[in-house]
Design goal:
The structure is a homodimer of 195-residue chains.
Chain A lengths: L5 H25 L4 H11 L5 E2 H8 L3 H13 L3 E4 L3 H5 L8 E4 L3 H32 L7 H34 L4 H8 L4
Antiparallel strand pairs in A: 1-3, 2-3
Helix pairs in contact in A: 1-2, 2-4, 3-4, 6-7, 7-8
The structure holds a DNA duplex (30 and 30 nucleotides).
DNA sequence: CATGGATTTCAATACTAATTGAAGTTAGTG
DNA sequence: CACTAACTTCAATTAGTATTGAAATCCATG
């Protein structure tokens, strides 16, 4: 039960949660997630117990639809979990229609998963594009004048450099989620290529 | 001098450059840079010699203004360099009014710089925000009812976790640009904190 | 199996960021 | 020092995302 002097306390708590939600939202945006995802995760993470959509809506100031969609997305990323209504809660009359959510606290798993799935996918696409470019250049050289020859050689070399870089990145990323440690000196050498 | 059979060759080259420019542009966008920065850098990187703004404009399909602004930004990041008109070029009548640019090829320096300046700045802001939240919560607890007390304790713990995580990230990032190698096991432990 | 609260969907709206291009400025050149 | 090509600036436009909220759907409950 809250005493009358808790009014200021509650306010301070709400403001603190707001600040953290903003911070996490911004961080998430920087990593190309929608800010609402960050806000909602933060609110769940800072709540001692599970919350339902309505409560999240109230605390985050986001719309019904947004909360629903964001929760789906967070579940997909394994960053939020659904929890069953506890027997105690059920006995106390909490409707079983309400779905309750908590934040996943093993952030390493979160980060590893995002890296594995999203960044890896990005780099795969890049590699495919670079290979496509190389294929195009492969036909070049035969039947070409000497100037064109030289330019093509140069181009091929540079695209190959980018490709090598991308592949190193992929290897790195793949290793990361397993070993949990990365030797950046490997990539540094590729990055330093001059030609 | 290009022979007639070079027509298809030139086309292939242009398309290849286009594909790479797209790929790099997309990559850059993912890292929260404007895609045009990536496109322009790629075009310079794939050119055997320095290019002036007009040439970049033609090859990238971007507007005059965009090319000008983007070059400024790329120079700031040390990702592109200005080069003086070569004596040979000057003798051949290349106007000294035209400014020539080349791509920086030491990509490690580029990446390290971006990480150091940009990501570090982001994490600094986050840390400041988390500390602000903690300050707010500091006043809470005295004169509060027992329920409020418990909730506040919980909140403080969780915000502290986030803060610790952020600081670990900062330490990591600081180390990265120097040693070139990161032990992610350190951060993994922080990320795995349960409470 | 009808009811109504809970949830999802999605077209419309609001926001944010990137790009354009014309007007303004700068600086080689004759 | 006037001229003009090269470059820069920035207000307006366009493009791209995120968010809203009302309508549709779902589903435990009586």
């Amino acid at each position: 039960m809250a005493s009358s002097s808790d009014i200021g306390v509650d306010e301070a708590r709400d403001r603190a949660v707001g600040i953290v939600a903003d911070a996490v939202g911004e961080l998430m945006r920087f990593w190309n997630f929608k800010p609402s995802l960050g806000r909602i995760w933060a609110i769940l993470y800072l709540s001692p117990g599970p919350l339902d959509a309505e409560e999240i809506e109230a605390r985050s100031g986001l719309s019904t639809g947004n909360v629903s969609m964001s929760l789906q997305e967070l579940l997909q990323w394994g960053v939020v979990k659904r929890v069953p209504v506890s027997p105690a809660g059920a006995a106390a009359g909490v409707s079983s229609r309400r779905r309750l959510f908590v934040a996943e606290t093993d952030m390493w798993a979160m980060v590893a998963r995002v890296f594995r799935e999203r960044e890896l996918h990005l780099i795969e696409r890049t590699i495919a594009q670079l290979e496509e470019a190389l294929d195009l250049l492969d036909g070049v050289g035969r039947g070409a004048g000497p100037t064109a020859m030289l330019q093509s050689r140069f181009l091929v070399t540079r695209v190959r450099n980018l490709l090598e870089l991308a592949k190193t990145g992929r290897r790195l990323l793949e290793g990361l989620s397993r070993t949990g440690s990365v030797d950046f000196t490997a990539i540094r050498d590729v990055l330093r290529v001059r030609s």
